[in-house]
Amino acid sequence: MTLETALLAVEYLKATYNHAITALDGVGFQLARGEILALLGANGAGKTTTLKALSNLLPAERGQVVSGSIRFDGLDVTRTSPAALVRAGLVQVLEGRHCFRSLTVEENLVSGGLGRSSTRAEIAEDIEKVYAHFPRLKEKRRALSGLTSGGEQQMTAIGRALMSRPRLLVLDEPSMGLAPIVVQDIFRTLRHLNREEGLSILVAEQNSAVALKYADRAIILENGVSVLAGDARELRA
User: Fold this and answer.
1) What is the location of CATH 3.40.50.300 in the chain?
2) Which of 65, 189, 205, 224 is the most exposed place for a label (fewest CB within 10 A)?
3) Which three-class secondary structure state does DSSP give residue 94?
4) Each residue's pLDDT tens digit, 92-148
5) What is the pLDDT of residue 117?
6) CB-count exposure of residue 213 (10 Å: 0-12, 13-18, 19+)
């Protein structure tokens, strides 16, 4: 894979918080179109900072990319607003199952389509696709998101991201706090989206067992540095 053919290319990324605390120190990797790439590491390894840098969300948390480059399909991410990145197809599901808790499941999904100025017909079509991937959400479509289970909230957050019609879906710790059977269900759905619809996926996980089972390749971070990369099956072994 070359820089030209990669959908996402991260090179020598260095990031700090408050211009003082180094969080990333030379992280680099590439993600090909149609690939599932796992970003692995312990708590505090730099996974979330990396993902926020990819969506240009670090400035909102007093973070800075101080050197290196991030390119998404030719776009310079550090010079592109988060909203413009979403419209370009880079859509992130943040850590912590973020839903609008006072809105119903379906209203949450509709909000995902509004970000890219979808028509009413497109929103209706995309909602049905989300329900096909997550039948549980169809059952709960009228329920307030804040009253649904953790797994249903995570599905809602992913479904809302899918409503933006992403080309690259970025997920931060989707397994956190969920029962193993729910985690397997979510990852199976992600792999189906990847295989059947060609959706490229970058997933940051502490749960390396499940991530390596479903990913094509993996990058391991330690103290803000990329220390190991390779085929997921080889790393599992």
Assistant:
1) 1-89+166-237
2) 189
3) coil
4) 998 877 888 999 999 999 999 887 777 889 999 999 999 999 999 999 999 999 999
5) 72
6) middle
Instruction: Say how far residue 230 (Cα) sits from the centre of its chain.
Output: 20
Question: Would you state the structure tokens that stand for residue 170, as one six-digit string?
Answer: 């970025």
- Cα distance between residue 102 and residue 199, in whole Å: 30
Q: What are the residue ranges of helices labelled H in 56-214? A: 82-88, 105-114, 120-133, 135-139, 150-162, 180-197, 208-214
3-state secondary structure of 52: helix
| The pairing of beta strand 21-32 with beta strand 225-231 | unpaired
Q: Tell me: pLDDT of 24 over 80.
A: yes
Residues 146, 65 contacting (CB under 8 angstroms)? no
Q: What are phi and psi of 47, to 5 degrees?
A: -65, -50
Contact 205, 235 (CB under 8 A): no
Torsion sign across C-alpha atoms 105, 208, 211, 57:
positive
What is the residue-wise DSSP string for 174-231? TTTT--HHHHHHHHHHHHHHHHHH--EEEEEES-HHHHHHH-SEEEEEETTEEEEEEE
Please say whether the beta carbons of 32 and 201 come within 8 A: no
pLDDT tens-digit map of 45-80? 999 999 999 999 999 999 999 999 999 999 999 999
